[in-house]
Write a structure and sequence with these properties.
Number of strands: 12
CATH architecture of the largest domain: 3-Layer(aba) Sandwich
Distance between the termini: 62 Å
Strand content: 15-25%
């Protein structure tokens, strides 16, 4: 049902004129009434009919970029790629970090939509993004980047092939003779984590090895989280001989904790990290990393957004492959 100014006025128990004054800033309204009206406008994602049609036909040359957090160099490089491409195409970019807060993410999309940006690139906090329906049904341009919800197929997305990332990293360790492989992941219940774990499971199947839930530990994308995850894993499963760590800060924490426990890399614990961070080559031993191309993912996502802005029927799912940068931490 389309919400009207009359509906807002009725629910706020004020006159239509009062709602109009709040929207247009034409008269001083009490804070209590003003806040109530604005709360309802945000709740219903209300846009005044008289301006919406005109504004939607214009271009603001501004796009929104909403990211769930800046946990590592991968996300930073991806954001840089988006910003770089936006500048090249003459666009301004409004960047918002939701810090893994789903409610704030939804509020932010409401706000950017109502402020008439031409479109939004979103890296969501979780796979639960069904709320996007009310925007996409109106053909408002939204592109998912890095993370996505596999149940939603009518929204374009640009991601790395995280399934293959998990599969390739695990296969590399299996080929080195490791059968007890631990995984330290950053955030639960997001597509990046779930897809990598699925690849990990399928690689184990290739070697007829069982999947053990106890070999998984969350590290919250921080140095301390990576260190704690190593301790929890090895306390619980002391026979783990290899680790796949899915974020650069956690990799640094993991290496620090392994050395603190007087274990040697790769002799006692082999290790593969994710994302080729700057210090990977100078750590002792140098870190083997599996990488996805963050800058390309970012730049491509902006191109997909432009295509959606120019053609409302445009839908594309793009997945970029990983590559393995082999150094000494994996035992090579």
């Amino acid at each position: 049902m389309k919400i009207t100014m009359k509906d807002i006025a009725r629910e706020a128990n004020v006159s239509i004129a009062t709602v109009s004054h709040v929207i247009n800033g034409t008269k001083k309204i009490s804070d209590e009434k003003h806040n109530k009206i604005m709360e309802l406008i945000r709740k219903y994602n209300y846009i005044p009919n008289s301006t919406a049609k005109n504004l939607r036909q214009q271009t603001t040359m501004t796009a929104g970029l909403i990211v769930s957090s800046f946990p590592d160099s991968f996300v930073t490089e991806m954001v840089y790629g988006i910003e770089e491409r936006a500048r090249e195409m003459g666009y301004n970019l409004l960047l918002i970090n939701t810090n893994e807060d789903k409610d704030y993410e939804e509020q932010t999309i409401n706000l950017l939509h109502s402020k008439m940006v031409d479109g939004i690139i979103l890296s969501p906090t979780s796979s639960d993004i069904g709320y996007l329906d009310r925007f996409t049904k109106d053909n408002f341009p939204i592109v998912l980047v890095n993370r996505y919800d596999p149940k939603i197929n009518d929204v374009s997305r640009v991601t790395g092939d995280n399934y293959q990332t998990g599969f390739d990293a695990t296969m590399h360790l299996l080929k080195h003779g490791h059968k007890k492989i631990g995984i330290i992941y950053a955030v639960p219940n997001v597509s990046t984590t779930l897809d990598r774990i699925k690849g990990y499971k399928d690689a184990l199947k290739q070697y007829s090895l069982p999947f053990n839930e106890s070999y998984l530990e969350v590290g919250y994308a921080t140095v301390n989280g990576g260190a704690s995850a190593v301790k929890y894993l090895l306390d619980r499963e002391s026979d783990i001989s290899a680790l796949f760590v899915q974020n650069d800060l956690m990799t640094i924490g993991a290496i620090s904790k392994i050395k603190e426990l007087s274990l040697k890399i790769p002799e006692d614990i082999a290790l593969i990290g994710f994302g080729d961070f700057a210090s990977a080559t100078i750590i002792d031993p140098p870190v083997t990393n599996i990488v996805l191309p963050p800058n390309t993912i970012g730049r491509t996502s902006f191109d997909v957004l432009l295509s959606k802005i120019n053609n409302p029927d445009y839908i594309k799912h793009i997945e970029l492959p990983p590559s393995l940068i082999i150094r000494k931490s994996c035992g090579c």
